[in-house]
Amino acid sequence: MVDEKKKSKVMQIISKQCGILSITADMEKGKVTVVGNDRMDVTDLTTVLRKKMPHTYVIINTVTQVDEKKEKEEKDRKKMEEECKNLWPNIIYPPYQYPPYMVESSGQCCQM
Question: How many domains does the chain have?
Fold first, then answer.
């Protein structure tokens, strides 16, 4: 980012996207740091930035933080699902048989 005008334009473009939690811009390094939640789409954000700011370089560094509580909850949930599958037997129902029907054509009755 060279000047304040480009900085404000980039900030406006980013702020309109869904799932953005915070935006910080560093003029010295020429970087914008965007923090978002799980609803933020990085590919959509880069596409919009490249369309609106065609003569700028867009470099994406994604950092994901792993939450140990969520991992534990997911493991417990998967374990419970497996236990539930074992409790309920697989019930196979016979196929539904349609009753015979009558077709009438030109006054004659035919059974199929």
Answer: 1
